[in-house]
Amino acid sequence: MSEEATSRQSPVHNKLREFDAKFIDECDWETPEYYEMNDERTSNFELPTHLDEPDAIGAEILANRESVGLHEISVLAPLEISGPSAPEFIQRVFTNDMDIEVGQIRYTVMLDDEGKNMGDITVNRLADDRYFATTLAGETATEHTEWLRSVSPADVTITNLDDAYTCLGLWGPEAHNVIQPLTDADMSRDAFPFFTSRQIEVAGVPVIANRISYVGEFGWELWTVPGHEAQLWDSLWESGQDFDILPVGLEALLTMGVEKGYRLPGADMGPENTPFEAGLGFTVDMDTDFIGKESLERALDEGTDQQITCITLDDDEVLPDVGAPVYVDGDQVSEVNRNAYAHSVGENVVNAYLPTKYAEPETTVEVGSGDNRYSATVREEPLFDPEDERMRG
């Protein structure tokens, strides 16, 4: 756990300590990396022995996929974009088609005026002239706020709500059974479709509920003000007792994202990576006008010379480090930018940018680990639930 004075603690920080949370500093928050209490679940699963990580992380992943996980995710921060010309402004600063109705959510990317990738953002429309844009907390939220203000018209207001809202994630097959008794809103899959947002009450707590998921499971991000987070946590936790609910830390969340092929800014993409290179071409609508579009048009004309890839090791006992070299036909062509053991599919996974000609699924590569090179295979994403039935269905 970081000892820096700048690290913030969520309103449920002391509650999480009671669950034996092990904290790390992330996005200027002390956030749970994993929970030692989940060690007691490790006997329920066959976990690998070659990993340099606590077994509780694997247990959190597998148990979450079986039942329901409760995540404290203050590492996310909302920015409010509001004002009479907010709809036109939203379209100008994001790459996707942002013509969405109130209650809809859109996943998109933001570029600067030089076409540099500033990161992926989830936007939901709360009212005709008010939007909620979710990014990473801390420095990223500050940078995004400053950039948006620098290009916004006089009648649009950008507000960094990093300290004004907290977020809990409730995801898993039993998520509906946990939340439905706590609200009058219909939380069924049909009534509350994927990529929609509702302003509701849960256990008497006003909540912005977004039906999206970084872990690839049915459920919601539940946003509320800090003063209500403890009540919301307690109510969900109590309701989940009959459904084997468990607290889940950040490491499990990120690994579940790898299993789903989701990108992590700073690891999977940086300012130099176009959305097309990062596998986020679906977030770009070239029929709309947005800041940085000319740069993407040039990139399309010139062709993409590299592509992020998901690579699995053929050896069950090897998980190369970040920075490990990647070889094709004996020549180094890249290095690992992210690694994880995908517990849900039993694979050692690395992500790396490969020259486009080597980025096709089933391409054979080698990845270095120590003094050795190990055979590996480029795979099609996502590895887990490729039809998205669990999350979208």
UniProtKB/TrEMBL annotation:
<dbReference type="Pfam" id="PF08669">
    <property type="entry name" value="GCV_T_C"/>
</dbReference>
<feature type="binding site">
    <location>
        <position position="221"/>
    </location>
    <ligand>
        <name>substrate</name>
    </ligand>
</feature>
<dbReference type="InterPro" id="IPR029043">
    <property type="entry name" value="GcvT/YgfZ_C"/>
</dbReference>
<feature type="domain" description="GCVT N-terminal">
    <location>
        <begin position="13"/>
        <end position="287"/>
    </location>
</feature>
<dbReference type="InterPro" id="IPR013977">
    <property type="entry name" value="GcvT_C"/>
</dbReference>
<protein>
    <submittedName>
        <fullName>Aminomethyltransferase family protein</fullName>
    </submittedName>
</protein>
<dbReference type="InterPro" id="IPR027266">
    <property type="entry name" value="TrmE/GcvT-like"/>
</dbReference>
<dbReference type="InterPro" id="IPR028896">
    <property type="entry name" value="GcvT/YgfZ/DmdA"/>
</dbReference>
<dbReference type="Pfam" id="PF01571">
    <property type="entry name" value="GCV_T"/>
</dbReference>
<dbReference type="InterPro" id="IPR006222">
    <property type="entry name" value="GCVT_N"/>
</dbReference>
<feature type="domain" description="Aminomethyltransferase C-terminal">
    <location>
        <begin position="307"/>
        <end position="385"/>
    </location>
</feature>
